[in-house]
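Quick one:
INPUT:
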């Protein structure tokens, strides 16, 4: 597969020598209206006859949080600004060019970013969209208490890192003169993405949305002549890009076997996780109060920055499920859970396994429950053994060769317990990378072109003697939603007559 863009790499040297080069920054406003609510779709139309630098693509907007309930309550922004995106599409002449089957863009991005999975961006870019105390240039989105029918101030936010074609991993410059009309379509996420003490109380409103990016041009016409000469051979421009698909199921069982089919020219990697069945429920409370498990037990969330997980029985803070009914209770701790501050139930990714440290004793103690994981891809098991959460941690890091990176930026995952209870992903990598943190593929992934292959994500949770797993299931609304995110390399082919074809 040619690693390309709007121009082949061997032409880049000549591009640097062209005269009449100029660069400027452009701004693009939405096509429809000035303000947007949860669930609305925002449409941006890119300019024609332009060469756009996707590495400079950013979207800025202002957000207002509103309490529509009858009492004061606490609320926070989601940890990553990308969480405001439910679906993200780049269309060319009305044709989708990827991410069309990614059912929850924000959740996928959240899981990747929390585990420090890189794109072409640097660690500084993640800081600019991480609301866990790193965002200082724009605002400090601390937890706010908003009275009944009250509103927050307008909070300025930005998104500068993207999945899919817009991420520009293989193609930095997008020459819109070669392609049909291009639109970026963004469906906004539900208001339940907001961590709050009562999710049914809060809504959000966005205004002043705009895209900006750098546009370059060559005054002497040499670039355009070079591209025209290449296109005259009737060979299409071949532009590979990372693509994502998502699948979600529903189960109440201890033994999960989530099945789906997929066809792609390169399946690079696959991530499986468990989300609470009620993650998008309006009645789910996640900060500043108690979330009942329906049997009198209460989940006590921790406000503020993420603390270390693993309190012992009889203590408060750090998020524990108590057998008592008040915050002051010093009853037996049933399950230590992750801190939900700046995370929220919507963006909690569970392993289904008991925490490493718990009130009943050390990891592996009598009465503990365990879980193991495996993918079956076209009748072949990945990995060759049933993995536990410790294996899953390393496999998640290996997916994009993250262990090869020397990132010092603080990951959300500070311990194996946090990974197990809040940011869990069981990943299998199927391609091979150069020593650049996954920016180049040396060997493509699994090729299933021409057929759909069956894939099964299996999780086996062993019921424990103390009933911990049953408590977890009840707290999650009676079950789990097995969720799978698939990373693929797709190909955009651009033809001389400005038509395109996408090979997933």
């Amino acid at each position: 597969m040619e690693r390309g863009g709007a121009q082949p790499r061997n032409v880049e040297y000549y591009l640097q020598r062209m005269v009449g080069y100029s660069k400027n920054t452009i701004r693009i406003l939405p096509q429809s209206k000035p303000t947007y609510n949860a669930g609305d779709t925002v449409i941006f139309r890119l300019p024609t006859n332009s060469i756009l630098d996707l590495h400079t693509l950013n979207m800025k907007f202002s957000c207002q949080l509103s309490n529509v309930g009858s009492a004061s309550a606490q609320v926070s922004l989601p940890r990553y600004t990308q969480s405001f995106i439910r679906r993200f599409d780049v269309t060319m002449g009305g044709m989708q060019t990827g991410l069309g089957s990614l059912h929850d863009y924000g959740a996928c991005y959240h899981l990747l970013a929390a585990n420090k999975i890189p794109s072409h961006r640097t660690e500084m870019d993640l800081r600019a969209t991480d609301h866990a105390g790193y965002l200082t240039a724009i605002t400090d989105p601390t937890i706010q208490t908003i009275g009944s029918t009250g509103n927050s101030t307008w909070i300025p936010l930005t998104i500068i890192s993207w999945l899919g074609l817009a991420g520009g991993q293989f193609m930095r410059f997008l020459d819109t003169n070669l392609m049909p009309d291009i639109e970026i379509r963004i469906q906004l996420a539900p208001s339940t993405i907001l961590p709050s003490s009562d999710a049914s109380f809060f809504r959000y409103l966005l205004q002043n949305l705009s895209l900006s990016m750098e546009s370059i041009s060559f005054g002497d016409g040499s670039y355009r002549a070079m591209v025209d000469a290449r296109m005259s051979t009737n060979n299409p421009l071949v532009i590979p890009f990372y693509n994502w698909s998502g699948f979600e199921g529903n189960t109440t069982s201890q033994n999960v076997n989530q099945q789906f089919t997929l066809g792609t020219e390169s399946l690079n990697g696959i991530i499986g996780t468990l989300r609470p069945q009620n993650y998008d429920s309006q009645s789910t409370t996640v900060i500043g109060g108690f979330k009942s498990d329906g049997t009198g037990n209460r989940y006590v969330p921790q406000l503020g920055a993420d603390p270390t997980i693993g309190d012992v029985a009889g203590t408060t803070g750090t998020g524990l499920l108590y057998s008592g009914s008040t915050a002051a209770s010093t009853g037996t701790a049933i399950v230590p859970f992750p801190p939900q501050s700046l995370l929220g139930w919507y963006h909690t990714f569970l392993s289904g396994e008991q925490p490493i440290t718990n009130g009943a004793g050390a990891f592996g103690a009598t009465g503990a429950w365990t879980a193991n994981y495996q993918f079956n891809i076209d009748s072949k098991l990945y990995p060759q053994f049933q993995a536990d959460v410790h294996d899953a941690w390393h496999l998640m890091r290996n997916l994009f060769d993250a262990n090869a990176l020397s990132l010092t930026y603080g990951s959300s995952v500070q311990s194996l317990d946090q990974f197990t209870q809040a940011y869990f992903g069981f990943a299998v990598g199927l391609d091979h990378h150069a020593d650049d943190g996954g920016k180049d593929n040396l060997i493509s992934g699994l090729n299933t072109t021409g057929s759909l292959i069956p894939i099964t994500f299996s999780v086996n949770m062993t019921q424990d003697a103390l009933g911990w797993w049953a408590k977890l299931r009840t707290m999650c609304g009676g079950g789990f939603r097995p969720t799978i995110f698939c990373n693929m390399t797709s190909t955009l082919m651009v033809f001389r007559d400005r038509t395109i074809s996408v090979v997933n």
